[in-house]
Design brief:
Layout (H helix, E strand, L loop, with lengths): L1 E5 L2 E5 L5 H15 L3 E5 L8 H5 L2 H9 L4 E4 L13 E3 L2 H16 L3
Parallel strand pairs: 2-3, 3-4, 4-5
Antiparallel strand pairs: 1-2
Length: about 110
């Protein structure tokens, strides 16, 4: 698991692991990035299913409750295939753009 911090955003990349192991490691390290916006980069994981993405639901809800962005990046599952409570985008650039838009909305108190 690789953590890259850029300003108030942490990008978490998983190179080799199962979704279950990845989530377990994320939970263990959560305190290190809990105050940041989070982008989960899943590009290196193959054969992802909507059910795999849904496993992030509880972590996503908890993180968003603290008024922080939580975005999953994969081109294998679309946002239409998962709960609308999970934010999924196909590229890192879209993830950055979404985090920026959500920051503006929070600043304007939407």
């Amino acid at each position: 698991m690789i953590f890259n911090k850029e300003g108030s955003t942490t990008i978490v990349t998983q190179e080799k692991s199962t979704i279950g192991d990845f989530l377990k490691n994320l939970e263990e390290k959560y305190t290190t990035f809990k105050n940041d916006n989070v982008i989960i980069n899943l590009f290196s994981l193959k054969n992802l299913t909507p059910e795999d993405i849904t496993e992030f639901l509880m972590l996503s809800k908890r993180h968003k409750a603290n008024k922080r962005s939580f975005v999953i990046v994969t081109d294998q599952v679309t946002y239409e295939e998962v709960s609308e409570e999970i934010t999924v985008v196909p590229t890192l650039q879209e993830a950055y753009d979404l985090v920026e838009m959500e920051e503006i909305e929070r600043d304007l108190e939407f």
